[in-house]
## 1
Amino acid sequence: MQGGQVPRVFLRLLMIFHILHELIFCEPQESRHLLLFVSPLFIHERGSPETLRDPRGFAVKFYTREVSYTDLYCLLSGFEGNFDLVGNNFPVFFIRDGMKFPDMVHALKPNPKSHIQENWRILDFFSHHPESLHMFTFLFDDVGVPQDYRHMEGSGVNTYTLINKSGKAHYVKFHWKPTCGVKCLLEEEAIKVGGSNHSHATKDLSDSIAAGNYPEWKLFIQTIDPDHEDRFDFDPFDVTKTWPEDILPLQPVGRLVLNKNIDNFFAENEQLAFCPAIVVPGLPANAPKCAHHNHHHEGFMNFMHRDEEVNYFSSRFDPVCHAERFPMPPSVLRGKRDRCIIEKENNFKQPGERYRSWAPDRQERFICRWVEALLDPRVTHEILSIWISYWSQANKSLGQKIATRLNVRPSI
Ligand SMILES: *[C@@H]1O[C@H](CO)[C@@H](O)[C@H](O)[C@H]1NC(C)=O
Ligand SMILES: *[C@@H]1O[C@H](CO)[C@@H](O)[C@H](O)[C@H]1NC(C)=O
Ligand SMILES: *[C@@H]1O[C@H](CO)[C@@H](O)[C@H](O)[C@H]1NC(C)=O
């Protein structure tokens, strides 16, 4: 994630997790220190205008309490300390196979020869990944340029496995919804705002907090019982899919209010690190606030003076103790470990549904943005045909409209 002039603010989570459902969030009405990090841009470089079309990062660091168990029992971490919920402003991601992440980033980044971001490279790479269509129905939609950070959604994107105190696992997705609603900048507005105030969104966030107009998000979860994971036409762990809200409703679990600006950008923002898998040691902003940690403290930009001789866990020389044990559900696994395409790819249904859910003018803007991207002279006829075929499979008339405007005869 390109942390640009990353606005980051301390915040308190007020009245966190007041509904419990049967799972994770246990202590109601509790005020908690949290940290929110939104990165202006994912692809573009630091200092780029905040009006560019780009996914935005949305990550929250929960400092767990100094008590014997955490609110969140997370299989992925298994630790008490920090829980870092790292995601972005769209609920899905471009690709399914994490091994392709570096290639994806290279395609999105500037051409290594010219240092110019070029659509033909992006469209070439993603033509091999029809699962990216869903993410493109967000990026090339109006929400691809949020008005500012207050009017932007956040999402955990990944599916988490959370275990409650009885040892029952649930699959969970996290969603942050701004209470002031979602707002976007259309092309002409974006040019105007970006042309005069290139970090307008950072300023908006900071000004709003300073004025006491605290930005606020509601936190929702969706849950799937692991026993039901085969009931859907998608794989619940596929990051290119959303969980339909009509069958897996959003359940409100908390509220997040940004009520304090940072005091020092470098110390509290530039050095902020998120790790979805484990406690992040070392730096004050990243260090857990509770007694549980794993002693690991070396690493990039670590400036704290330390003289401990024990940097491993467990140790009889150090009082740090294990968090209270909680039950982990056992599972019997049998089968073949393989690297292959998942069974339920279903790459076109959700992008098609999303397109059809829009009003005609919004569909038209989406088509225009695609036509413009595909007009890059280095997009070959082959690549063009593949994209037209993909969009046709999502929605026939969408593919046809793009083909007609590009003067291409669709091959399917
Ligand atoms: C854990 O989840 C199961 C199944 O939803 C439920 O029956 C049980 O009461 C839950 N336990 C706790 C402590 O919430
Ligand atoms: C740019 O920022 C200034 C100062 O906050 C504001 O007065 C002005 O309206 C902004 N311009 C645009 C085009 O948003
Ligand atoms: C494609 O989208 C249009 C516009 O929303 C809709 O009228 C049409 O029924 C869709 N076509 C298919 C095949 O789903």
Note: The chain has ten helices and nine strands.
## 2
Amino acid sequence: MYTQAFDIVVAGETSPVADDGDVQTAFLARIARDEKIEPQDAMPEAYRKTLIRQISQHAHSEVVGMLPEGGWITRAPSLKRKEILLAKVQDEGGHGLYLYSAAETLGVTRESLVEALHAGKAKYSSIFNYPTETWADIGTIGWLVDGAAIMNQVPLCRCSYGPYARAMIRICKEESFHQRQGFDIVRSLCEGTPAQKAMAQESINRWWWPTLMMFGPHDSDSTHTGEATDWGIKRISNDALRQKFVDVTVPQAAFLGLTLPDSAIMWNAERGHYDFGKIDWDEFWRVVKGDGPCNAARVSDRVAAFDEGRWVREAAAAHAAKSALSKASLKVAA
Ligand SMILES: [Fe+2]
Ligand SMILES: [Fe+2]
């Protein structure tokens, strides 16, 4: 899942500084020619650091994003829904792996990134710090959260850093399936009994505002927008993407017969967009800084999953070492 909101700088972190003129000039000329920057290419240190922060926050979001839905795999209402959800959650794990690999091309180790997540120092998308209370939440997450992710991530397929852009092309194809399966769950509930439709409405009421927050702070409060745009990382601003998401989602909610929990939503013919109400940014920052409903549980669940998987990693490493040894001895014998 997710992104722009990923490049969140927190207190104590310094903003990367631009470095020497020659590297900058040649680099900006390449960006202007729309060339992809590859791992072996010269790049300003500030660009490298910004990408490490954004790609690692993105990778963490994919992996932490498996948790709210993973708990519903055993409770899915049918075998078909279980299979679909299982595939979706596995996709998110795969997205995390592509992105950790993309971050590693910038000279960081995956271990250091995972350690920062487990120590509570790294950020991930705030949306995953909200609980999944009902089956309808699984539909809402696919429809709204993965839907917002697509809005955020499609422009990243044209990001200036080659490994990130290429990872995003595959990820976006899978996100599209995630959004459709979520919409299909919500549609089934809306076409079901009054209690099922009420479950869908209650879920939308809880998830609507946190989903709008996923696009990150207003452009006027987004400190790195200018640099990220100049460097070809960010193609469309937070507010423009958020507006696009609202414009696409309002008719979908109407089709389903659901009410979005914002009385200010109204078509503005002059702007050619839907107007919508004010986001509670205090809530956004509270959750980003660690005080959301599930922050502590998400990190401790990740740590537990990592510890429980230790034997698998050790066995794989032992197998790889053994294979390398027997290949080497075969070479000597030959
Ligand atoms: Fe997804
Ligand atoms: Fe994903």
Note: The longest strand covers residues 266-268.
